[in-house]
């Protein structure tokens, strides 16, 4: 039976930006407030799952033509490379550092290399979650 | 200083009103006869109660600590947009799987339309 999902689809189109923006906020706020790579990645995956619920898998694949297994692999690679990067400065594996910089718009901002590791976590969480859900979802 | 305390009383009153509305909606879920009327009580009442509580929390932290929490505003918008849609989807799923209306309900306008679509 073909049903008319107009209300769900319209609300999804609006709410998805809210969820994605909030997941990015959680990701970048993770250093000083609750949040971080894991919960940010889960929330981004939740936004994509909402898209999958409102539209079918074919449409979502057209919007996001991404192989999520590769996303997980790239995330792991980034996490390992940020650990290895500390070898170039004669410090132990996974040592992190931070500094304060004057950015053009944001002003004085604390930038930590832990964010790079967090990007890896974020990508792995998105990749693994979406791979699980897409593998279970497509039974054709 | 006096002003701040007056505002605090008002915010506390808003929280209590929101909690009472939530309680009424919970009683409605228990008391009402079928899925559709229960859904009507749950989605409307709970949405309004939560909106009142969240707005009061937002205003309280704004007045008390001078801290505008954007996440609460986002939460208000989010609940306001999604809770009615969730109610709609639950109701429609119930109707499509053939849950009957309460026997005393007056009319079923959707039934006639569905019949017309089926006959085409």
Automatic annotation (TrEMBL), chain A:
GO terms for biological process: proton transmembrane transport; sodium ion transport. InterPro entries: CPA3_antiporter_subunitB, CPA3_sub_B, MnhB. It is found in: Cell membrane. The keyword Iron does not apply. Pfam families: MnhB. Its main location: membrane. Keywords: Antiport, Cell membrane, Hydrogen ion transport, Ion transport, Membrane, Sodium, Sodium transport, Transmembrane, Transmembrane helix, Transport. Residues 7-131 form the Na+/H+ antiporter MnhB subunit-related protein domain. The keyword Transport applies. Belongs to the CPA3 antiporters (TC 2.A.63) subunit B family. This is Multisubunit sodium/proton antiporter, MrpB subunit. It comes from Litchfieldia salsa. The lineage of its organism: Bacteria, Bacillati, Bacillota, Bacilli, Bacillales.
TrEMBL record, chain B:
The chain crosses the membrane at residues 7-30, 42-63, 70-90. It is found in: Membrane. Keywords: Antiport, Membrane, Transmembrane, Transmembrane helix, Transport. Its main location: membrane. It is a multi-pass membrane protein. One of its GO terms (molecular function) is sodium:proton antiporter activity. One of its GO terms (cellular component) is membrane. InterPro entries: PhaG_MnhG_YufB. It comes from the Bacteria. NCBIfam families: CPA3_mnhG_phaG, PRK12674.1-2. PANTHER family: ANTIPORTER SUBUNIT MNHG2-RELATED. Belongs to the CPA3 antiporters (TC 2.A.63) subunit G family. This is Multisubunit sodium/proton antiporter, MrpG subunit. The lineage of its organism: Bacteria, Bacillati, Bacillota, Bacilli, Bacillales.
